[in-house]
Amino acid sequence: xPTWLIIVLVALLVLAVGGAVARAMYxxxxxxxxxxxxxxxxxxxxxxxxVDRGWDRETLEAAARRCYAEKTGAEPPVLMLVEVLxxxxxxxxxxxxxxxxxxxxxxxxxxEWVFAGLE
Length: 119
Description:
Helix content is 55%, strand content 23%. The chain is an alpha+beta fold. Strands 1-2-3-4 form a four-stranded antiparallel β-sheet.
């Protein structure tokens, strides 16, 4: 095998390994930022979906705060709307909030948001 071919192959191998290592380091360094942006995008999507269905965000949050306080005896530290389920009719609608590492489910009964579960 010619010497020049060996040099080219070794150089390509070094570049490939170096690129893989650099990419892994970059991913590790930006992983937390990526997850934060993903969470924000999910929250924005859930909020947009709720608004699109005519649900008032302030009413939803007030109901979530009230239900969480009633069930736990404490105010929720942070509420994040993560999902809205708009099923046929209004009594089957659900809104799901993340409160810390738990999920708070709200359901609708006669047009009012009520507690449906805390997981």
